[in-house]
């Protein structure tokens, strides 16, 4: 059984869950070693602006995996070392950029492949071919549908019944490369975005384990799979090639913003009565952040923290269950409305 040295690129909380599975799952620990992790730099968070690492960094440090800074995004600035007049003074965070760039190149050349899941930044084209098997990206949608930053939220907002996970070999375009593996997931009517994050991460991990553990032929024939032969020639030898995405059917998603969850107060009652399913789907996709919210007549911000959709003999109604008024704790909606009488 082949043993793989890999790098892991990720930044989101559910990406951290995937990383923890990689280093703790007994069925895969004997097959791979995560040599280093690349994640977003520490950021100031909350009202007190406390410098906080990504959960991916926290998990990596817990298991004593090397963590590298996000220096790989500076592609246009350091394509040629000769362009750097004073490399010893060029810094990113607390690391020497010139020396670290050399380290990144060598590190990537010495791994079998890099696995990317919700990393949140562009990786320079010149780096993609450095690992033996390239960069693989885990994307939580059925590509080419929902390329971009918010595939899980978008699937819920649109009321989709089916989504899934796609693993691709990365190229220079976002979520564009050929498909290595793809599997579907049937969305439950009760699924919110955190539910999809957990379920699709679990599905992605099972798909990855299958590729690593069972499909030794996949790696033995990697060069021809990646394009050295035509699809017909490959099939004549019993080898399935990587699948080119149907770029004519591509759809895109956008990065979520706080404003996406705003519904003007004067429209609330009308939207709940006339479009209960659309409002509920919007809630599912935007939960817990940015969430659905409005501005009350008194100028206070009100966030909807829970709601439920009821279907009785095809008569659909939406009930608000709990809310949180700006500066207050979360309460059930009936208690809030008795006190403020705004709905």
TrEMBL record:
EC number: 2.1.2.9
Domain Formyl transferase C-terminal: residue ranges: 255-311
GO MF terms held by the record: methionyl-tRNA formyltransferase activity
Catalytic reaction annotation: L-methionyl-tRNA(fMet) + (6R)-10-formyltetrahydrofolate = N-formyl-L-methionyl-tRNA(fMet) + (6S)-5,6,7,8-tetrahydrofolate + H(+)
Enzyme's top EC category: transferase
One Pfam family matching this protein: Formyl_trans_C
Binding site for (6S)-5,6,7,8-tetrahydrofolate: 141-144
Residues of the Formyl transferase N-terminal domain: 6-208
Transferase among keywords: yes
Gene3D superfamilies: 3.40.50.12230
Chain segments annotated as transmembrane: none
Keyword Protein biosynthesis (UniProt): yes
GO cellular component: cytosol
InterPro entries: Fmt (IPR005794), Formyl_trans_C (IPR005793), Formyl_transf_N (IPR002376), Formyl_transf_N_sf (IPR036477), Formyl_transferase-like_C_sf (IPR011034), GART_AS (IPR001555), Met-tRNA-FMT_C (IPR044135), Met-tRNA-FMT_N (IPR041711)
Alphabetical keyword list: Protein biosynthesis, Transferase
Family membership noted in the UniProt record: Belongs to the Fmt family.
Function statement: Attaches a formyl group to the free amino group of methionyl-tRNA(fMet). The formyl group appears to play a dual role in the initiator identity of N-formylmethionyl-tRNA by promoting its recognition by IF2 and preventing the misappropriation of this tRNA by the elongation apparatus.
Protein name stated in the entry: Methionyl-tRNA formyltransferase
